Amino acid sequence: MSRPIPVTPEEKLADAKQQVGLPPIVVICGSTRFMTEMNEADVRETEAGRIVVKPGCDLKSPHDLWSDPDEAKALKLRLDDLHRAKIRLADDVLVVGDYIGDSTRAEIAYARSLGRPVRFTHPEVDPDAGR
Length: 131
Prior knowledge:
By secondary structure, this protein is of the alpha/beta class.
């Protein structure tokens, strides 16, 4: 029995990932104040056989790349776009930390709008809990 031909870019991506036998991809979201917890989640998710993508820059920590406030603002916008791309690539989302700020809340809403399952290390912070 043949499979239906993928039509949308999302279906094509899912089909390609299946054809090449990629393990599930999880994207880690959350405030960069939780980078230590994100690193621990990365270890656990990797051990469980998942490919992990997560924030690569912590703008809350000093670095030459974002020492200029104007450059940091522009970088933040680019990083937000990049993180949305990671969410599109991923099969599911893991939100780390016991606090949800505006950026993470927007990432959760975006992931859910795409139909991505969203897990939480602290389920009580799920902005949609109880709905």
